[in-house]
Amino acid sequence: MFSAMAKALEGRGKAAQPGKVAPARAPALSAPATSGCEAKRAAAAALVSAASAGRKLAGESALTAERGLSAAKRRAADDHTNVVKRLAKKPAVAESDSQEWREGVAAMETNLVSSLAVSTGGQYSFWWRKFETFCSLNKRVAMPFSSETVAVFLSCLAEKAAGVGGVDSARAALHHYFSLAHPDKTCPTDSSEVKLTIKGIKKRFQQPVTKKTPLECKDFIKVLSAATEGGDFIKVKLCQLRLAAQVTVMYCAFSRYEESAALRMSQVKSENGDLVILFAKGKTYQFGESRMSVIGGQPQLAINPVVVVQSYMDRLREEAGQSEDGLLFPAFRCTTSGYSVLDKPASYDCVRKQFKEVLVEAGVTADPASFGLHSMRRGAVTGAVNGGVSEHIVMKQMRVARISTVTRYATLD
Fold first, then answer.
1. Which value, to the nearest 10 degrees, does the dihedral of the CA atoms of residues 105, 107, 113, 118 take?
2. pTM greater than 0.85
3. Is the dihedral of CA 385, 389, 395, 396 positive or negative?
4. Which of 134, 142, 144, 49 is nearest to 89 (CA)?
5. 85-93 mean pLDDT
6. Three-state secondary structure call for residue 258
7. Which of 383, 387, 372 is nearest to 409 (CA)?
8. Tens digit of pLDDT for each residue in 168-222?
9. Measured between alpha carbons, how far is 71 from 185 in angstroms, rounded to an integer?
C-alpha cells in the first residue's frame, strides 16, 4: 500500500542535500499522480516565499508577532520577552558608538527573544517566575543561581506534584535564561548534582507513556466517509468538513496537530492534482525553516483526500470569507447568517472531541477511546514502515532529523 509513497519520496530525495530534510510526498493509499517540473518549480518558489515571510515575522516584536494567539498565550509570550530583556547580557552601548552598532544591539535582543517558539517561550517564562518566587520565599539568589538551589527547587516540584510533571521543562527554562545572563559560564543545571536529582525523581515518579492507537489506513477512509457524510462536500456542515480536512492533512502529511493548526490558506497549493503543503512551524523548526510535503491526488478512491481539502478551502472562502492570509483551520462562531471566522485555530480539545465522535460513528476497528490526534501521525508512520518503506524515507516525510524518531513512532507488525 505504501510502496508508491516510497517511490515518490525516493525520486524527490535524490535532489536533496545530505543532512537536509527533503521535500516529501504523502503516503499514497494507492497509486498517486506524479507532479511535473512546473509543480516542483512552483513549490520551490512558494517555499522561498514562506521563508521570506518567516524572516519578516522574526523582525517584528518577536513572539507576539505570530497571529492567531489567544490572549493568554499572548500574555505568556510578552512575559517571556520581558524576562529576556531583563536577564540577557547586552553588549555595551556608548555615546560615541555608531547608529549601526545601536541598531545591531537592538536586533540582537529581538533575535534572542525569537530563538524560542511562542509556546516554548511562554512555558519557560512560567517556570522562571515560579523559580523566582521559590528563591524569594527561601532567601536564595535567583540569578546567578547555584546547582544546589536548582536541585532543591526541582525536588520540591516533584514532591508537590507527586510526579515528574514539569521537572524537565523547568530545568530547560533555567538553563536557557542562565545561558542568556551568563553566556561565558557553565550552567549549574548541567551539574552532576542536578542530573542525579532528576534521575532520582524519574525513578520514583515516572509512569510508562501510554501511546495512542495508530489509525489504520482502512479506518482513515472510514473517518473521512463519516465526517463528510459519504463524500457530500456541499451539504455537510462546514465544521465537520473542517475536521475531515484537518484529519487528512495530519494523516497524509504525517503532521502533528500543532503543525496543522498553524497552517494558513496560502501555504496549501494545488499542483497537477496534488496538494503541496508548506509547514512553516513545528515542534523542531520555526519560521524561516519551512518543510514541504505533498498529498498525492487519488481519484480512484471513493473519497479523494485531495478533494476533501480543496472542497473545504473553497467553502471556507465562500461561506466564511476567509482570506488567503487567514488560518486554514480556524475556530468558528455560528451566526444567524452562517459562520464567522475567529482569528485563532480550532482548539486541540475541540478537534479531539469532534474526532472522537466521528470515530464512534465510523465504526473503527479499535476502541475509539484509545485514539487521539497523534493517532494520524503514528498510523501513517506505522503503515509506511510495515509496508516496507525505508526508515530514511519515512524520516523525510515526518520532517524529523533522526531515524530513532521513526522507530519510536512505528508499531511494528
1. 170
2. no
3. negative
4. 144
5. 91
6. helix
7. 383
8. 999 999 999 999 999 999 999 999 999 999 999 999 987 777 788 999 999 999 9
9. 36
Decide: helix, strand or coil at residue 333: strand
Cell of 99: 547608529
- Half-sphere CA count of 70, side-chain side, radius 13 A: 10
- 72: number of Cβ within 10 Å: 9
Query: Angle, nearest 10°, between helix axes 118-137 and 167-181?
Result: 90
- Listed in sequence order, the residues at least 6 apart from 304 whose beta carbon sits closer than 8 Å to its beta carbon are 297, 298
In sequence order, which residues have a C-beta less than 8 Å from that of residue 87 and are 6 or more positions away? 143, 177, 180, 181
pLDDT tens, position by position, 315-332: 999 998 999 999 999 999
Region of poorest pLDDT, from 27-41, 102-116, 259-273 = 27-41
Q: Does position 146 have pLDDT exceeding 90, yes or no?
A: yes
Count of H-run helices and E-run strands, the chain: 16, 6
> What does the alpha-carbon distance between residue 69 and residue 73 come to, in Å, rounded to a whole number?
6
- According to DSSP, the β-strands at 274-279 and 338-345 are unpaired
- Rounded Cα distance between 246 and 240, Å, is 10
Contact between 256 and 283 under an 8 Å Cβ cutoff? The reply is yes
Torsion angle of alpha carbons 252, 255, 257, 263, nearest 10°? -90
Residue 102: all three cell numbers together = 545601536
Burial class, 54, CB count within 10 angstroms (exposed 0-12 / middle 13-18 / buried 19+)? middle
- Whether residue 263 contacts residue 329, with contact meaning beta carbons closer than 8 Å, is answered with yes
Q: Which three cell numbers stand for residue 327?
A: 488560518
182 contact partners, CB below 8 Å, separation of at least 6: 89, 144
| Cα dihedral across residues 61, 66, 71, 74: positive or negative | negative
275 phi-psi bin (left φ>0, alpha ψ -120 to 50, beta other)? beta
Peptide bond into 144 cis (omega under 30): yes
